[in-house]
Amino acid sequence: MNRSNGEELHPRDTAGDGISRGPGRPRSAAADEAILGAALELFAEVGYQALSMEAVAARAGVAKTTLYRRYPDKAALVAAATDRARPSVEFPDTGSMRGDMVELFRVTESALDSPMTMRIFALMVSEFAENSEFRDVYWRNFVEPRRQAFAEILERGKQRGELRGDADIDLLVDILAGSAMYQAIRPGTEPLTERMERIIDLIWTAL
Amino acid sequence: MNRSNGEELHPRDTAGDGISRGPGRPRSAAADEAILGAALELFAEVGYQALSMEAVAARAGVAKTTLYRRYPDKAALVAAATDRARPSVEFPDTGSMRGDMVELFRVTESALDSPMTMRIFALMVSEFAENSEFRDVYWRNFVEPRRQAFAEILERGKQRGELRGDADIDLLVDILAGSAMYQAIRPGTEPLTERMERIIDLIWTAL
DNA sequence: ATATCAATACGCTACGTTCGGTATTGATAA
DNA sequence: TTATCAATACCGAACGTAGCGTATTGATAT
After folding, report:
1. Do A168 and B1 touch (CB under 8 A)?
2. Which of A90, A180, A203, B25 has the greatest number of CB atoms lying within 10 Å of its CB?
3. A155 or A10: which carries more pLDDT confidence?
4. How far apart are CA A97 and CA A162, in angstroms?
5. Across residues B4-14, what is the average pLDDT?
6. Chain D bases closer than 7 angstroms to a protein Cβ
7. Helix then strand then coil, % of chain A, to nearest 5
């Protein structure tokens, strides 16, 4: 799990510009696609630990060596596969800040319920303990976009006068994102959206 | 990783009442102790993944079979070892609610910085995705006590009149605990305690 | 009291299996 | 000619199991 990026380690840049090609047979783009697709599927199905390189190779219809030609190890492969799967985040605009917040949480809820998102989250947390660069990929792809959406909503609210001009947006985002993550982890409570609505209302009495 | 408790699976209840003992040689309490100690040490040192049963047995000075006589698999052993390691949580009482909160966070910060706590946290999150009963052990031992401390502080504040009587304590605890966890995960910011102070102050303008 | 018995734990060694990762080989595409 | 591909064998680490002989205990028979 303590792995460097992997892109640097392999001579052929599969996803590269494609213009300057060295000698010899080029990598198969079809294999690239099949590998990443199979890896992502299996990761979503069984999680990181139970994902085996043999299974990925089998599902992709590719030999195991073909995997290792592209990625130095399992960690790098999974990182690349999940990296590609960035879910797009919508920036809601309902007119009111509270409405935007609720809508954003509503949209996020399904993501937090999906096993794949939780698995990525788990990977991020566990890799944090190991201080790997892994964490940065996940943070950038999965957390930062949602933080951006939060910040955007708050900024608009500020301009509309719904939020005090001196409010620390970064701090507010921390509180909101932290509460959302916590609700996702916390066992057995009321539905996420409802609870988050109450959290929003509580914080907003202090706006 | 999908494992039932383990206590039920093995006939001898090592930690049982000790009064009614059937025939046969009893389990060695020294071995019990050595096993759990070695497992906890190794878990803190190398994490769950890299922890091997062979290493535990070697460090405990015990045969591998002795491990499997007690615990059905690695997951159960680690669960038992970490279960025993409940860190005690102090309930601060500085006189003011804000002071109590800050003090509690200050004490908690060192725990959040230790690799073992982070590893347990990671295990909890990843096991949540797998829906294992594992998660409940960790939640009960590591999260719930701190939630209790939070709730206690807030309750005292309520009685002192520092907090509105109709404040939803459970919800407040969620926000505070969630923010703290988030800060622990979030890469590279200011020191946890300082940031938590600001979060407390922000929320408390809405008391 | 003492020997025996049944039951269980213990350490040891070995084994079967899975899986990550490497090496080799012959064929194939550019 | 040169690198990729698939197939296969291989190595080593690790989980978990099985069998052996031995040690320790409670119950029982003499």
Report:
1. no
2. A180
3. A155
4. 7
5. 44
6. 2-9, 13-19, 23-27
7. 65, 0, 35
Q: Give the residue from A104, A108, A193, A197 showing the smallest Cα distance to A153.
A: A104
In this complex, the residue with its CA at the shortest distance from the C1' of nucleotide D27 is B23
* Interface membership of A203 toward B (CB under 8 Å): yes
Three-state secondary structure string covering B38-89? HHHHHHHHHHHHHCCHHHHHHHHCCCHHHHHHHCCCHHHHHHHHHHHCCCCC
Per-residue pLDDT at A82 exceeds 70: yes
Nearest nucleotide over every DNA/RNA strand to the A49 CA, judged by C1': C19
Q: B1-85: which CATH number, 3.40.50.720, 1.10.10.60, 1.10.3730.10, 3.10.310.40?
A: 1.10.10.60
A76-105 residues near strand D (Cβ < 7 Å) = none
Check if residue A27 sits with its Cβ under 7 angstroms from strand D: yes
Q: Which of residues 163-202 of B touch strand C (CB under 7 A)?
A: none
Asked if A53 contacts A67 with a C-beta cutoff of 8 angstroms, the reply is yes
Q: How many Cβ atoms are within 10 Å of B27's Cβ, its own excluded?
A: 18
End-to-end alpha carbon distance in chain B: 43
B14 touches strand C (CB under 7 A): no
Q: What is the pLDDT of residue A3?
A: 37
For residue range B95-142, what is the model confidence (pLDDT) as tens digits? 999 999 989 888 887 777 777 888 888 888 877 766 666 778 788 888
For residue B139 the two structure tokens come to 């939640």
CATH of the domain spanning A97-204, picked from 2.30.30.100, 2.40.128.10, 1.10.357.10, 3.30.420.10:
1.10.357.10
Q: pLDDT value at position A172? A: 92
What residue segments make up the domains of chain B, in order of their start?
Answer: 1-85, 97-204
